[in-house]
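ingest -> fold -> write
write: protein_1
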Amino acid sequence: MTRRSDQRGVALLTMLLIAAIATTLIMVIIERQARVQRELAGQMQQDQIAEYNRGAVLFAMAALRADARDGTTVDHPGEAWAQPFPAYPVPGGMIRPALRDAQARFNLNSLIKGGNVNATALAVYRRLLAQLLLPPELADSLVDWLDSDREPFGAGGAEDDYYLGRQPAYRSANRALSTYGELRLVRGYNSTVMRTLAPWVVVLPASASKINVNFLTPGLLEALVPGLAPSAAVELLQRRPLDGWPTVAAFLDNPVFNGVSSEIRQQLQDMLAVESGYFELYTRIRFGDRERLQWSLIARHDNNGRLEVIANERNPAWVPEFEPIPESVADKKKEEGE
């Protein structure tokens, strides 16, 4: 009887052990299934966000094509594409696009022209750095990153001998910047510098060296014209025609330029334009519990409206201020239970 009782006890323990193992396996399977479902849901959200961003890009392109069909060659803030876009409610979220003229800022790649240092652009960039209270050596190190030689440019220059001593080591690019984020690799360009500089500069192909006067900001105008008083820059841009200046000559015909030398006037003529070939699209997308900020660079290759997205970046270093979601949109989303 004792042996049978012992056998029953062993059998019971064995069954309990098997039940415990089975329960554990079931819990593991359930947890794995839940994790897979979360991952799939997250991936579906990411895919949906990507499609919403693609829709915003197509919408922006349609606005630019409509502008090209109007037959006007002057780009200015009064055009339809430059107006604030409304927030668009979509199933499960909201899209807020903002289209901006990319040639309203200083193109960092314009510091090199035809393989050589562009002295005019370099002088403008130095003045801009001074206005922003940033170290002047930043201009030297950036020139070295862009030019093709191996000799340091100025006191703040940096070539391979500097970058190979970093941890981890790397070499100077000796070519044009591909993205604004690449500046993090250049000597002296830390996060604080990049945040300060971002509203004033842009990374475009080196050929896009001209700045559209119809989208100029007073601070950048001060950097373009040495000795220009801040109040004069503000007053001039406040008197900008509703349809923009039709030509650069008309812009330079303002009395504020009467005391400007012929050399500076010629430099301005070469650096300025009234039309643009590059546009930035900033898209804020809210979908479910996720939010993404996407930047796209759109190139307009000719006046026939041929457009192409040539760069994309998530969470760019700088974005224009977005208007809040209109109350009507928020209320509608609540009523629909989204």
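write: protein_2
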Amino acid sequence: MQSFRTEGNYRDASRLSSAELRAAIAGGEILQSTALAFDTQRQLRFELGGVRGIMPFADCAEGAGTGAVRDIAVLTRVGRATCFVIEGMEEDAQGRPFYRLSRARAQQMCREEYLDTLVPGDILPCTVTHIESFGAFCDVGCGISALLPIDCMSVSRISSPADRVSVGQQILCAIRSRDAQGRFVLTIRELLGTWAENAAAFSPGETVVGIVRSIEEYGTFVEIAPNLAGLAESCPDLRPGQAVSVYIKSILPEKMKIKLVIVNRSLGQNHRFDLQYFVTGGHIDRWVYSTPESKKQIVTEFACPACNPA
């Protein structure tokens, strides 16, 4: 059975023998190789075991054949691992053999056999491909893109998606929603633990590293874990993203509050917390961040439109 992965995580076709490539063709296996050029005929070129691989523009991505994909989206594949299925071996006008490749076919297989079977609340591996101010775009399989909005990255306030993830990083996400065209909106905060799960790692009296997230008149919010922030005294000379050390004065589950005292404002280093997953697979129907005692309730309901018709 075909296993669908994010681009960059398939077998490298350039390292396979002719016999292995023939077997991959017969089995319809998705492979990958580094695109070496985007030529004047608007096709990507590859080298597979001493034989050219040619990917016509219409086969470079889903929608390329209908004009829905611009040249820039294809030419930026040059120098990068690109997945495909080998549709066969052909000969050019000079009688030279080449493999005909199709990334669009690989994406179609991935969508029909994998992504179309998923529903909101399902958890899947992703790879961050690029970052914008409003969120991060992620490869959810064979280069198919989905958006991870900034407000779905953390319960704690962050000023940039780069505060949480980086390009090329492999992460886990849950499907937040899906539109009529099948495009996913992703979320990660529900996998990073509830208030109680995060707070359990800390105790009053400890001094820990924190990251300044926002500065208000009434205090400074400092993140001490990806889904947990506390409030320290107001410090207008600090800036969001700055690393500080903080003393944990008290932890109040009934109010979901952590009182902090800033100890060192000049750590002189950039810091970003590693993602710690409390959920690593399967499906989530409902997630409650808040403690049972708290009046403020932060809840995510993962609704499947097909399962809950109006």
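write: annotation protein_2
The mean pLDDT is 93.
Residues 118-192+281-301 form a domain with the OB fold (Dihydrolipoamide Acetyltransferase, E2P) fold (CATH 2.40.50.140).
pipeline exit 0
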